[in-house]
Amino acid sequence: MDVKNAFLHGELDQEIYMIQPMGFQSQDHPEYVCKMCKALYELKQAPRAWYGKIAEFLTQSGYSVTPADSSLFVKTNKGKLAIVLLYVDDLIITGDDEAEILRTKENLSVRFQMKELGQLKHFLGLEVDRTQEGIFLCQQKYAKDLIKRFGMLECKPISTPMESNAKMCAYEGKDLEDATMYRQLVGSLIYLTLTRPNISYAVGVMSRYMQNPKKPHLEAIRRILRYVKSTIDYGLLYKKGEDCKLVGFCDADYAGDHDTRRSTTGYVFKLGSGTISWCSKRQPTVSLSTTETEYRAAAMVAQESTWLIQLMNNLHQLVDYAVPMYCDNQSAIRLAENPVFHARTKHVEVHYHFIREKVLQEEIEMKQIKMDDQVADLFTKSLSTGKLEKFRQQLDIVQRIRADIEGEC
User: Fold this and answer.
1) Domain coordinates in residue numbering, the chain
2) Which of 208, 323, 326, 327 has the most beta carbons within 10 angstroms of its beta carbon?
3) What is the pLDDT of residues 150-185, one digit of tens each?
4) In terms of CATH, what superfamily is 243-395?
């Protein structure tokens, strides 16, 4: 559902004044200002005022704000759920309590001017397909528009977003005459990673050079676009009927950044067959060993796992088991499981020992995995075509046509 003139419903909780609009100035008092009674568009306080209004309405209707996400509202009734997800003036309403969902839609239409958009098919550039096999998410139209916008329609497709074991440097190559296009490209590709985890690492690396991009960086970002063209109809498939258990994978590339010698953390979480959370991020400090690098990555995964467990519990999908966390470094696993603080780990910052507490509390279970099967490797380095395709398949990143065909069979 979409709210018409959402910001005009918001009520201000502080005094705000504005100059008299052009064409409406008072002849008697041209120096006067207007005291605002309600929010207007382009007012900084308008989004907060609107959120306060809609949150108050949903709370009075029996919904509760989830601690894990302030834009998620949940209502339970005899074991059934009604869920409202709010994004500014767009609302997604779902759940298995059909009577409550219908009542909520009616109440919203009475209280606000609403537009019924029907079953969810498009949302903020995301395309949602329902098949017999499950739900398929992609950004095919967004990707096409992106390629067209930056004049890459006639480019030659390529099988990987970045050369295998490519090493980018901040100061090699000529400066770009205008860095605007490069920054726009990176920003657009970051949004594309919402349904394309396979380009997260490449886009993350190129985002490091937005302040002063060079010609090699522009060529590398264009290569990502060529890869996007070759996989333009790919997206995430969430199969139904799968055992909805939360599983995590974490990995790190030791000293992978040539400029700072910092390592890159990569992790991914799956719920059943579907990929629900992933990250590729350069670590804030330099590590002194591969064990320290992997341990820092595991700590970051523990934080994300804690939030996901809270979110699942808020949705009344209790996580009453130790979440398996697969890591390919035995030393990091032993370090996380050992309750004794060794002298060798004194230099590791205190907050990175968060993972140790979670393991000892049996909220997380660290498990060994072979390097060749470590799917989080996709988020820490550029891979060969064979490995990329293997991990892409494990994450259920599939073609749209294939998903549709399988659903019809």
Assistant:
1) 2-118, 138-232+401-408, 243-395
2) 327
3) 999 999 999 999 998 888 999 999 999 999 999 999
4) Ribonuclease H-like superfamily/Ribonuclease H (3.30.420.10)
CA distance 1 to 341: 53
Task: State the helix-helix crossing angle for 46-60 and 98-111, rounded to 10 degrees.
Answer: 130
CA angle 316, 397, 96 (to 5 degrees): 25
Vertex 30: Cα angle to 24 and 33 (nearest 5): 80
In whole angstroms, how far apart are CA 356 and each of 23, 251, 301, 330, 359? 66, 17, 12, 14, 5
| Cβ pair 71, 86 in contact under 8 A | yes
Q: Each residue of 121-135: pLDDT tens digit?
A: 999 999 999 988 899
Question: What is the predicted pLDDT for the residue at 343?
Answer: 64
Q: Average per-residue pLDDT in the chain?
A: 91
What number is the average pLDDT over the span 130-143? 93
State the CB neighbour count (10 A cutoff) for residue 403: 25
Percentage, residues of the chain above pLDDT 90: 75
Strand 364-368 to 323-327 pairing = parallel
Q: Which of 261, 268, 303, 305 is nearest to 283 (CA)?
A: 261
Extract the tokens encoding 58: 């949903």
The answer to whether the beta carbons of residues 39 and 46 sit under 8 Å apart is yes
H or E stretch at 142: helix 140-149
Q: In the sheet that 246-253 helps form, which strands lie side by side, from edge to edge?
A: 274-282, 264-271, 246-253, 323-327, 364-368
Cβ proximity of 234 and 196 under 8 Å = yes
What CA–CA distance (Å, rounded) separates 252 from 377?
Answer: 7
Alpha helices, DSSP H, located in 165-209 = 180-192, 200-206
- Residue 273 CA to residue 317 CA, distance in Å, equals 16
Percent of the chain with pLDDT over 70: 97
Q: What is the mean pLDDT of residues 336-347?
A: 74
Q: Return the C-alpha torsion angle 101, 102, 108, 109, nearest 10.
A: 150
Q: Phi and psi of 89, rounded to 5°?
A: -110, 15
* Residue from 182, 173, 168, 224 nearest 199 by CA: 224
